[in-house]
Every structure is written in C-alpha cells, then in structure tokens.
Amino acid sequence: xxxxxxxxxxxxxxxxxxxxxxxxxYGAINLSQGFPDFDPPKEILDRLAQVAxxxxxxxxxxFGAQNLREAIAQKQGRAIGRRIDPDHEIVITCGGTEAMMxxxxxxCNPGDQVMVFSPFYENYGADAxxxxxxPIFIPLVPPEYHFDIHLVEQGFQAGAKAIIVCNPSNPCGKxxxxxxxxxxxxxxxxxxxxxxxxxxYEHLVYAPYTHTYMSGLPGMFDHTITCxxxxxxxxxxxxxxxxVIGPSPVIEAAKKxxxxxxxxxxxxxxxxxxxxxxxxxxxxxxxxETYTRKRDFFLKGLDRIGLKHNIPQGTYFVLVDIQEFLxxxxxxxxxxxxFCEWMIRNVGLAAVPGSSFFREPVNRYxxxxxxxxxxxxxxxxxxxxxxxxxxx
Length: 392
Ligand code: GLN
What we know:
Elements: H1 15-26, E1 29-30, H2 42-54, H3 66-80, E2 90-93, H4 95-107, E3 113-118, H5 123-131, E4 134-139, H6 149-157, E5 162-166, H7 178-190, E6 194-198, E7 224-229, E8 242-245, H8 248-262, H9 267-277, H10 281-305, E9 308-309, E10 317-321, H11 323-326, H12 336-346, E11 349-350, E12 352-353, E13 365-369, H13 374-391
Helix pairs in contact: 1-12, 2-9, 3-9, 4-5, 4-8, 6-7, 10-13
The structure holds glutamine.
C-alpha cells in the first residue's frame, strides 16, 4: 500500500476518547472523557425543536451566523470590559477543538515554538504537530501547580511564537491568578508574542477563586487569542460549537483556515443555542452552584474512602493519586494506563491515565470527572471503595 504521511505516525489517538470507548465496551461508569449526563437548559431544547421546522438547514455564513456572533461578542465583551466587533474579532468554529487547531494553523509557521504548560490537555500536542509547531513544555509543579515565570521568559527569549494557557486548567483544575496572567501577558507583549488561551471552563470556577480573562487585562487584547466553546457552559458537548476571539488581523486569517477546514458549524445548532445566550446571569450562577455541589460531594467521598487527590479550583476534573496501589505487588510494573484498564474491567469505573497529560514521566495519577448526577457519582464512589478493599 502507498505510504501515509509521516506526520500522523508521530501521535496516537486521544487516550481520553479511547477510554470512553473501552468504558462503553465493558459497560463501566464513565468518569474519563468529561461531559455531563444531564440535559441542556429547557429553553435551548424548546428552541431546537422549533428550529427543526423553521430552519436554517443550509450553510450559515462560514465564519458563523451573524446573530450568534453578535450574541457571543456581547457576552464576552461584557466579561472582558471591551467591545468585541462581531464582524472582525470572532469566528465560530466546530467546538473548542477546532478553535484551537484553527488558531495554531493561523499563527504558526513550520518549526515555530509554542510553550505549553505540563500537565496539559492532550489535544495541544496533536495541534502542535499538525500545525508544524514545536511544543516547549513548562512544568506546572504539583501539588499547587505553580510555574516558574523565568522559564516562560526563557521560552519567549528563545523566540517562542506563543504560549498556550488553559485556564481553568484541564486536567489539574488550576485557576490562574490575575498576577500570574499579568506576568505571562507582560512577557508576551515584551517579546511580541501571542497568548493563546483555552477558556472552555470559564464558568466552572469554585469560590473563592474567580476567572480572569487574559484578553481583558490592560493592553492584552491585541496579544491574546481566546479559544472557547459553548459545550461545557450549556451542556452541549455533542453540538460542537466553539469560537475564537482575537485581534482582527488574526481573526481574518483564522476565518480562511476555518472555512477550508470545515466551512462552518452546524447552522440549526447555531440558531438554537441563541436561546442559551439569552439566559441571564442567574443561569451561570446556578451552573456554578450545581458544579460546586458535585465537586464537594465527590471530593468528600474520596476523602471518606481515603484516596489522595488534588482540590480543583475550577473545571470538573480531579486527579487521584494511585501511587499506593502501584506500590502493591499485584500492580508491580503497571503503567497508569494498564491500571485504568484494570479498573474498567475489575472495578467497573473508567478514568483517564494521568500520563496522557504530563510531558514528564509521571505515573501516579488518574483523572476522574464529576459532571454526573450525585446518584452516579455515589455509585462511582462505591466502585472506588471496592477498589480499596480489593487491594487491602
Ligand atoms: N475536555 C474534555 C476532557 O478533557 C473532553 C474533550 C473532548 O473529548 N473533546 O475530557
């Protein structure tokens, strides 16, 4: 057979998505790939039913329906305290995934260096390879997931084109402080580089932490490319609606990349989600309260069982430390991936092996998410309790 590209030999399929497939195969409780098990708000569902008959069913404007761009520009403009031009500073994409890929392809030449914090959301690795960029990893050091700003400066000094900041951060739940973001932003301006932010968990932040928008910091709009999504905010991960916001020269170029990659996001879904964007601030408050309850319930359960874990400041992920299991004779030589496969088969619970997020050879964490009903989370906790008993 003719050879396929070398490029695709350099990365694997997504371990996150693979764990969901294995979980489904064994009928396990799936706390691996993060997505909610509850419905989007009723307003959105009602509107979706109407749109089925009213349309649109044909292509929208390639870079996003006018009314959706206006609604998102208004919401995010309010959040960052600056008007966002719906015609030149935003492009609607097929999910946050395309937003990031489109951004990378827009700003990177082959060989350009892009800094990525480790642990990182695994897509960034493939995004870098597919856009020809070389990722430079900056450690976020557990347990606080602090980073050394000097390493960031060194990266920029060495010519890095951009730094990717996932805030709130998947998988470690870190919420970057305003000071941290200012420090990164100041360096990006000094070295004339971009900050690419992934802010899909902007509304899943737990008190006392608050979300700071990089693009809203003084002087940062022209240096920030914000990748975002409606998936988590409106519990519609299957709709694949995301967007990129940034300075108009970048967005005008991103529109071209997006057009040739996908032509556009699903037109009827762009229309239906407007009902969500019309919900008031109360909606976001309730969403946050719902996830705060889930987080507290799940973390309390982990504590009761005696499993060590980080305390997520944002997102719906928690990293559980499995070192004490890996130290047992029956798990000698196990990788965290093998442990996760063992868990699915023997405990009935799916997690993501931590190693798929770390650049460093870290083999002691699994990532669980808590975007599930308390009933399901309770069952998951029972599985984990059984797991501790199996090995004790
Ligand atoms: N962000 C989610 C996760 O990390 C899922 C994203 C995806 O699979 N597209 O699990």
